[in-house]
């Protein structure tokens, strides 16, 4: 015999809501605020000689369950370098709602080469809390550019991780 307990609300002894359900499988808790996590790893050697932002392959998508949810974006890993000469490499986080166009949200990192030879060693380490006010699929992608020479966003093809977490209201 199978037993089943169906509830949409669990309260503590002080009548505080501890866990609620909207009946569709979405659970909200006053203690647990992460709704879902998406993560991807990339090992591509990414480079550009463009002075305008170009899309990288570092991307992942998530669909929020509520317009009040926020998305915590974490990007870590990789190693940037330059082919030689003085230059500045920049990377930015862009996002797309549904199949719309990508829009820049914020700067991720700037790397500088102030010497005549090649340079390497800056690692991506970034976090950003985004408030998209959407329940449509959201795609986050890293774009990057250089001021001169070739800029390598992941020159040693080490792992670059992007993690998206839905933070529930």
Draw up the topology in text.
Blueprint: E1 9-11, E2 17-21, E3 27-29, E4 34-42, E5 47-48, E6 54-62, E7 70-82, E8 87-97, E9 103-113, E10 119-130, E11 138-146, E12 151-152, E13 160-167
Q: Can you describe this structure?
A:
The chain is an all-beta fold and 169 residues long. It has two domains: 1-32, no CATH class; 33-167, Jelly Rolls (Sandwich). Helices cover 0% and strands 57% of the residues. The chain is built from no helices and 13 strands. The chain has strands at residues 9-11, 17-21, 27-29, 34-42, 47-48, 54-62, 70-82, 87-97, 103-113, 119-130, 138-146, 151-152, 160-167. Strands 4, 5, 7, 10, 12 and 13 form a six-stranded antiparallel beta sheet that branches. Strands 6-11-8-9 form a four-stranded antiparallel beta sheet, with no helix packed on it. A hairpin with a 5-residue loop joins strand 1 (9-11) and strand 2. The radius of gyration is 21 Å and the shape is elongated. The mean pLDDT is 87.
């Amino acid at each position: 015999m199978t037993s089943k307990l169906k509830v949409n609300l669990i309260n503590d002894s002080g009548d505080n809501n501890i866990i609620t359900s909207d009946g569709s499988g979405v659970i909200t808790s006053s203690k647990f605020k992460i709704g879902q996590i998406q993560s991807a790893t990339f090992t591509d050697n990414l480079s550009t000689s463009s002075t305008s932002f170009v899309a990288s392959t570092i991307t992942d998508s998530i669909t929020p369950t509520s317009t009040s949810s926020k998305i915590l974006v974490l990007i870590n890993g990789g190693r940037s370098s330059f082919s030689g000469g003085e230059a500045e490499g920049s990377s930015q986080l862009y996002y797309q709602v549904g199949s719309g166009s990508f829009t820049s949200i914020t700067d991720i990192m700037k790397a500088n080469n102030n010497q005549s030879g090649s340079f390497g060693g800056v690692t991506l380490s970034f976090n950003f809390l985004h408030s998209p006010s959407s329940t449509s699929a959201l795609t986050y992608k890293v774009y990057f550019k250089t001021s001169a020479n070739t800029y390598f966003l992941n020159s040693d093809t080490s792992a670059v991780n992007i993690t998206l977490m839905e933070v529930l209201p």
